């Protein structure tokens, strides 16, 4: 029933019109089962509601920032007060709607796998491969989620009338994991990501800040128990303790957010991971239950699910820009992309299992670029070439 409908009631004294708009609006606000159905129809895996009180998160955020664990992400400190006060981002906000959107690609290979994680883990030991985090192999999730969150906001407006809101997708000062945890969408894992019993952690989060008093959902209990698989597997030991991450050591930070020279002591630990890192997620037992995405935009593009270092190194800047059009990878730029590849190629040269023919091609490819490389890239290429001497004879 439309909230703008009116019922015509006949009486002996003539026609009487009773407006039902407010009653219907209140019903849609108090019973949000319709909202969950609409979210699912738009491709979201789930939606939950929380209030805006993030006071518990304040001391933890301050401690993390004071310790410098945010690295070069100065915007984290500069806008910290906004992260803790959603109502300052959108005046009048009283609730936060948090959605989950699964991103595992729905391919025949994924459907046929007994455990999809095994193939991804096996790539760690293939030195000539270039591993790109799974979330980045398809279209930029920012665009996909933002469009669908806007569509969801449009649906809400049709149900309850005009309301105040603002959409966020990992691009504003929003503590999305904290709010998702608060809403019961999942619990914070020891790797600091959100976990869900039915979906693991292989999903994106998005939020709509609203001025509508929808009923809030209750948080759920953590189900990590004594497991420490994510902590133990981290190549750079970036997870310094349960629920504590030092971004300065995290491969995702180093290959995406960090724009300068990668610390030399961390380069050998990065292996063949050239954009992001899924290690802590791949060993998490809950990710056996990760859901395949219903969104075609997250299907891999340009063979990134099985790319090799030499092929990606051969791309010109024009190739990089055109192939990564609409991809989150484009944001880091060609220089950082080649820096990451150079580290991966250096680590390939360290490997005793690398095919001799591939080894010579990698050395040749690095030397070809070296003369015209920037100082920053030259540093990483020279380091990579030196790794040949690390191979045991």
Automatic annotation (TrEMBL):
The active site is at 170 (proton donor). Cob(II)alamin binds at residues 83, 170, 194, 205, 252, 277-278. It is an enzyme of class 1 (oxidoreductase). [4Fe-4S] cluster 2 binds at residues 234, 250, 277, 280. One of its GO terms (cellular component) is cytoplasm. Keywords: 4Fe-4S, Cobalamin, Cobalt, Cytoplasm, Iron, Iron-sulfur, Metal-binding, Oxidoreductase, Queuosine biosynthesis, tRNA processing. Residues 212-244 form the 4Fe-4S ferredoxin-type domain. SUPFAM superfamilies: alpha-helical ferredoxin. Its main location: cytoplasm. InterPro entries: 4Fe4S_Fe-S-bd, 4Fe4S_Fe_S_CS, QueG, QueG_DUF1730. GO terms for biological process: tRNA queuosine(34) biosynthetic process. One of its GO terms (molecular function) is metal ion binding. Its cofactor is [4Fe-4S] cluster; cob(II)alamin. It comes from the Bacteria. [4Fe-4S] cluster 1 binds at residues 224, 227, 230, 284. It catalyses: epoxyqueuosine(34) in tRNA + AH2 = queuosine(34) in tRNA + A + H2O. The keyword Metal-binding applies. It is found in: Cytoplasm. Binds 2 [4Fe-4S] clusters per monomer. Catalyzes the conversion of epoxyqueuosine (oQ) to queuosine (Q), which is a hypermodified base found in the wobble positions of tRNA(Asp), tRNA(Asn), tRNA(His) and tRNA(Tyr). PANTHER family: EPOXYQUEUOSINE REDUCTASE. Monomer. Belongs to the QueG family. This is Epoxyqueuosine reductase. The gene is queG.
């Amino acid at each position: 029933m439309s909230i703008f409908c009116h019922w015509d009631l006949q009486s002996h004294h003539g026609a009487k019109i009773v407006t039902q708009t407010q009653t219907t609006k209140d019903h849609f606000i108090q019973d949000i089962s319709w909202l969950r159905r609409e979210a699912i129809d738009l491709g979201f895996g789930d939606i939950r509601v929380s209030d805006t009180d993030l006071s518990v998160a304040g001391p933890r955020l301050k401690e993390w920032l004071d310790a410098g664990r945010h690295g070069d992400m100065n915007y984290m400190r500069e806008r910290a007060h906004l992260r803790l006060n959603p109502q300052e981002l959108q005046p009048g906000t009283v609730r936060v709607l948090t959605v989950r959107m699964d991103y595992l690609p729905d391919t025949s290979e994924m459907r046929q796998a007994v455990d999809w994680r095994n193939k991804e883990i096996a790539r760690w030991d293939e030195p000539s491969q270039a591993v790109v985090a799974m979330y980045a192999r398809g279209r930029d999730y920012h665009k996909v989620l933002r469009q669908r969150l806007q569509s969801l906001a449009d649906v809400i407006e049709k149900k309850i009338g005009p309301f105040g809101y603002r959409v966020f997708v990992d691009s504003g000062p929003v503590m999305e994991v904290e709010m998702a945890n608060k809403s019961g969408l999942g619990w914070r894992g020891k790797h600091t990501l959100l976990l869900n019993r039915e979906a693991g952690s292989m999903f994106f989060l998005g939020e709509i800040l609203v001025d509508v008093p929808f009923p809030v959902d209750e948080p759920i209990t953590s189900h990590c128990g004594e497991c420490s698989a994510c902590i133990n597997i981290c190549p750079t030991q970036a997870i310094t303790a349960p629920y504590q991450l030092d971004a300065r050591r995290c491969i995702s930070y180093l290959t995406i957010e960090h724009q300068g020279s990668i610390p030399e002591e961390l380069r050998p630990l990065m292996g063949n991971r050239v954009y992001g890192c899924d290690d802590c997620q791949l060993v998490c037992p809950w990710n056996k239950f990760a859901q395949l995405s219903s969104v075609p935009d997250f299907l891999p593009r340009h063979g990134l699910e099985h790319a090799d270092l030499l092929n990606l190194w051969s791309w010109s800047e024009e190739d990089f820009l055109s192939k990564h059009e609409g991809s989150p990878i484009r944001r880091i730029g060609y220089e950082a992309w080649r820096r990451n590849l150079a580290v991966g190629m250096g680590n390939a040269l360290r490997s005793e299992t690398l095919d001799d023919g591939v080894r010579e091609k990698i050395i040749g490819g690095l030397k070809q670029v070296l003369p015209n490389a920037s100082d920053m890239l030259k540093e990483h290429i020279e380091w990579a070439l030196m790794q040949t001497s690390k191979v045991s004879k």
